[in-house]
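QA checklist item 7 of 12: single-chain prediction sanity check.
[x] sequence parsed
[x] length recorded as 234
[x] structure emitted
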Amino acid sequence: MAGRLAPVWQPGLRRFTLIPLLINTLLFALAGWLLLSLAGDWVEGLLPDWLDFLYWVLMPIVLLGLLLATFFSFTLVANLIAAPFNAVLAARVEAHLTGQPPAGDDQGAIAGAVGAVAGEVGRLLYLAGWAIPLVILWFIPGLNLLAPFAWFAFSAWMMSLEYIDNPAGNHGLSFAEQRRRLRQRPALTFGFGSLMTLMTMVPVANFFAMPVGVCGATRMWIEGFEGKAVRREG
């Protein structure tokens, strides 16, 4: 994994990772503070007094679900804010890995990066359509025990969608076409998305999730979806 993500730390790419890294660090620090501050009170408020003995049984399950939902939501916000920078980073990583950047010059990449913001809005609308039923699932007795697992699967799918947009968007693929491509490679899609979801849940490591995700998705796009070879490091 470290070798595959090495381009993030290359001297020529470090300056393109700085802003996404800073945005991610600030937002995940805020997410962690909110989670620690509110989770316990929220669980206590859901339980009637006569079910207080279930607090320590339900708390790990609820905390896992809140962890997924909170960090996932903050990941989307961070990517929305950093979308222009991530698109440029993906173009630079692709050039580093293949020796051939996406069609167009730096000005074209910047213009495409502006369009990436509109793409993020489209992804948020897509997210809302699926997230609302998952939120409702939390309040259905019995079925709510499945909510953390449903959120994890959904987060893995959305993480792949979120990060693949950077290299795929640089090649002009629409959001609908990106979803179609990802559905063709479910193991690769959910494998990458699961790794990114887990990374967002690990303190300190989640600060680096955004630039690592952009780099990893760009390599996944080149090798897994375009069928191209990448240059060896070193």
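[x] summary fact logged: The chain has one domain: 20-225.
[ ] second reviewer sign-off
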